[in-house]
Amino acid sequence: MNLEQLRGFAEIAETGHFTRAAEQLHLAQPSLSRQISALESDLGVELFQRTRGNVSLTAAGERLLPLARRMLADAESARNEMAELAGLRKGRIRLGAPPTLCTTLVPEVLAEFHEQYPGVEIRILESGSRSLIAALMEGSLDLALIVTGVSSGAARAVLERETVLTERLVVVSSAQSIDPFAEVPGAVVSLSDLARIPQVVFPENYDLRATMDVAFRAADLEPLAAVEGAEMDAALRFVERGIGVAVVPAMVAALQPGLRVAPLADPNLVRTVSLAKRSDMAPTRAAAAMQALIREVSDRFVTRESESERLVTRAGDAVRVPTGH
């Protein structure tokens, strides 16, 4: 058994397909098949059930997968530890973040980190908070930016979390169409105001969707859906074309000059973002440097001056988001 075999095994389990796994690993498909055959021969079990065009794990494969992932994570940690003997001139850092942060906070963090430590390789996993927590738990990430409140009891026992910012949720609408909330007093939108306007609704696995679903149910409201299931970039384009309104985090709205922005009236409708890591694993020097930079960039984000109501805060500071009115 060797790491390349385990890496190939884990990739096939992830993709459910030998050819796609080979492409991800930059291997010829026959080479990957030989690796798996050698691994199965060494272990004396079949790891995959092979059907036409698809593969699935056998019972033995399911038992091996979490062990393989942990062994690969340990090997990655060993590489990082050795690389750090060179004083952050080389090494790897594995960072996870939700899609909305990958278009706001994360690009600034990565640009500055790369400028300071150009020899350190950065690997990004862009996914929802639940998937990022699972990746942290199995050791395939060093750090993750997650939405606070999304975790299981097991995760809370293992993960260490630090709040980096809290931002209000806001409603965006097309700047080219009639303002759907023009008659709403005070330029803030209540849930009842929002429920009567057609919305572009995110997929059910979005943390933001879950937050709004809970809020509407608690208020005994049934929102109108113009489009359901759109990812963030598509949803913003749909809003831009006047198909409906959408509820997004304040930082996302700040990057959309073509949209009107109005805060929700309920101050409790917020998104709190935390930096998470495993509490039972000492951070590498690269991870510690990344943590410090994330804190620094987050502080700058929430203290930037803008033109409107304060919607993003951390430790008493704030950033404002232009309304577009």
Question: If you had to describe this structure to a student in words, what would you say it looks like?
Answer:
By secondary structure, the chain is an alpha+beta fold. The chain has three domains: 3-66, Arc Repressor Mutant, subunit A (Orthogonal Bundle); 72-166 and 272-308, D-Maltodextrin-Binding Protein, domain 2, CATH 3.40.190; 167-271, 3-Layer(aba) Sandwich (D-Maltodextrin-Binding Protein, domain 2), CATH 3.40.190. 44% of the residues lie in helices and 24% in strands. The chain is built from 13 helices and 13 strands. It has helices at 3-15, 18-25, 29-43, 59-83, 99-102, 105-116, 129-137, 153-158, 191-195, 207-218, 232-240, 250-254, 285-303, and strands at 48-51, 54-57, 91-97, 120-126, 143-147, 159-174, 199-201, 225-228, 246-249, 259-263, 270-278, 310-314, 317-320. Strands 3, 4, 5, 6, 9, 10, 11, 12 and 13 form a nine-stranded mixed β-sheet that branches. Strands 1-2 form a two-stranded antiparallel ribbon. It has a two-stranded parallel sheet with strand order 7-8. Helix 1 (3-15) crosses helix 4. The longest helix is centred in the N-terminal third of the chain and has 25 residues, at 59-83. It starts with a helix and ends in a 5-residue tail after the last strand.
